C-alpha cells in the first residue's frame, strides 16, 4: 500500500460493549483529536439499535454477518444483515467512502487486558509492534484466518481490533476507556508517520498468541452446561495451560483437566457472549515472529 487515504474508527459492533461506543462518541465531539494532515479519519457506530437495547445484537451477531455471499444475498433481511450491507456499501472496497484501515473497538468479560487482534500481514504486524513499543502490556492475538471469519474488519485488509477487559457487558470503566482512546490516538499518529515515510523500524522480534482453536463447555445431549470454568483458570487469559491442568469444575465439584498434547495459552476464558457460540475459551500458541519489516 502506497499511502493511507482514509481510516475508519468503528465502535459498537456489539451494542453492549460500551467502551468503544463512548470512545467513538467522544472523538465525534472532539474531532480535532482525530484530524491528521495526510489522511481522513471517519468514525462510525455500527449497531445503534443494539446499543439502544443494550444488547450484543438484535437478530444476529453483526460481527459474523460479513460473509461475501451473505452480503450479496439481498433476500437476507435481519437487522444485522441489512446493517452489514449498508456498512459494506459505505466502507468496503467498492463502497462510497472506501477505507484503507479499520480500528475496531470492542470489550470482553474475559481478562484480555489490552489486546490487539490482527493477522500476520506485515503492515498489521508493524502497526501492533509500534503500539506495543508505547505500551508493553499489550498482548498481540493473531486471530482466525479470514476464510473462516466474517467480522466487520474483514471488509478491509489492514488494521486491528482492540479488545479490552475484563469489563462487564453494558458497563463503562474509565481505565479501559482511557487506554482504548490512547491506542486509537497512537495508531493515528503511526499512520501519519507511515504516510510521511517515517515509520520507526523496530529491530526486534514480536511475541504473538496465534489462534489454534476453541473449547466448548461440557454439555449434555440437550446442550445444557455440565460444568463451569475451573476457578484456577478464571481470569488466567494468556497464561500457560499444560496437559492435565484443571479447566472445568462440574456442579458436583469434580475437576476436568485439559486433555491436549502440548501447552497452550487460553484467551477469552468465560467470555459471556461466547456461551451461545459453544466457546468456553479460545486456545492460542505462543510464538515469536521475526522479519516482518
Ligand atoms: Zn465485541
In words, what does this structure look like?
- The chain is α/β, with parallel strands linked by helices and 293 residues long.
- The chain is 24% helix and 24% strand.
- The protein is built from 6 helices and 12 strands.
- Helix 1 crosses helix 6.
- The mean pLDDT is 95.
- The chain binds zinc ion.
- Zinc ion (ZN) is lined by residues 13-14, 17, 106.
- Zinc ion is lined by residues 13-14, 17, 106.
Instruction: Give the count of helical stretches.
Output: 6
Series of secondary-structure elements, N-terminal to C-terminal: EHEHHHEEHEEHEEEEEE
Helical content class: 10-25%
- Cα shape: globular
Give the low-pLDDT segments.
none
Major sheet size, sense and barrel closure: 9 strands, mixed
Radius of gyration: 19 Å
Mean pLDDT: 95
Which kinds of small molecule does this entry bind, naming each only once?
zinc ion
The neighbouring-strand order within the major sheet is 2-1-3-6-4-5-7-12-11
The secondary structure category is alpha/beta
> Count the strands?
12
Distance between the termini: 14 Å
Beta fraction:
15-25%
Q: How would you summarize the topology of this molecule?
A:
Elements: E1 6-11, H1 18-29, E2 40-45, H2 48-52, H3 68-72, H4 79-91, E3 101-107, E4 113-118, H5 122-134, E5 139-142, E6 158-165, H6 174-195, E7 206-215, E8 227-229, E9 246-250, E10 255-257, E11 265-267, E12 281-289
Parallel strand pairs: 1-2, 1-3, 3-6, 4-5, 5-7
Antiparallel strand pairs: 4-6, 7-12, 8-9, 9-10, 11-12
Helix pairs in contact: 1-6, 5-6
The chain binds zinc ion (ZN).
Amino acid at each position: 500500500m502506497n499511502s493511507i487515504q482514509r481510516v475508519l474508527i468503528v465502535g459498537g459492533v456489539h451494542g453492549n460493549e460500551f467502551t468503544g461506543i463512548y470512545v467513538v462518541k467522544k472523538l465525534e465531539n472532539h474531532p480535532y483529536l482525530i484530524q491528521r494532515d495526510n489522511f481522513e479519519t471517519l468514525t462510525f457506530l455500527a449497531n445503534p439499535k443494539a446499543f439502544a437495547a443494550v444488547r450484543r445484537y438484535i437478530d444476529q451477531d453483526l460481527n459474523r454477518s460479513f460473509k461475501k455471499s451473505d452480503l450479496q444475498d439481498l433476500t437476507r433481511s435481519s437487522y444485522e444483515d441489512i446493517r452489514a450491507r449498508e456498512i459494506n456499501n459505505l466502507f468496503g472496497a467498492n463502497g462510497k467512502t472506501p477505507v484503507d484501515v479499520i480500528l475496531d473497538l470492542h470489550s470482553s468479560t474475559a481478562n484480555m487486558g489490552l489486546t490487539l487482534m490482527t493477522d500476520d500481514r506485515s503492515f498489521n504486524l508493524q502497526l501492533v509492534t509500534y503500539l506495543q513499543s508505547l505500551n508493553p502490556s499489550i498482548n498481540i492475538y493473531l486471530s482466525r484466518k479470514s476464510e473462516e471469519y466474517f467480522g466487520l474488519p474483514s471488509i478491509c485488509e489492514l488494521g486491528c481490533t482492540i479488545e479490552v477487559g475484563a469489563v462487564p457487558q453494558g458497563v463503562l470503566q474509565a481505565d479501559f476507556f482511557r487506554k482504548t482512546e490512547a491506542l486509537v490516538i497512537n495508531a493515528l499518529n503511526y499512520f501519519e508517520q507511515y504516510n510521511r515515510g517515517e515509520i520507526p523500524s523496530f529491530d526486534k522480534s514480536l511475541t504473538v498468541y496465534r489462534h489454534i482453536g476453541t473449547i466448548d463447555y461440557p454439555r449434555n445431549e440437550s446442550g445444557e452446561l455440565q460444568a463451569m470454568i475451573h476457578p484456577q483458570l478464571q481470569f488466567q487469559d494468556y497464561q500457560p495451560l499444560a496437559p492435565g491442568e484443571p479447566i472445568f469444575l462440574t456442579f458436583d465439584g469434580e475437576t476436568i483437566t485439559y486433555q491436549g498434547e502440548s501447552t497452550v495459552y487460553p484467551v477469552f476464558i468465560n467470555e459471556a457472549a461466547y456461551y451461545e457460540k459453544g466457546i468456553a475459551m479460545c486456545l492460542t500458541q505462543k510464538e515469536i515472529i521475526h522479519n516482518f519489516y
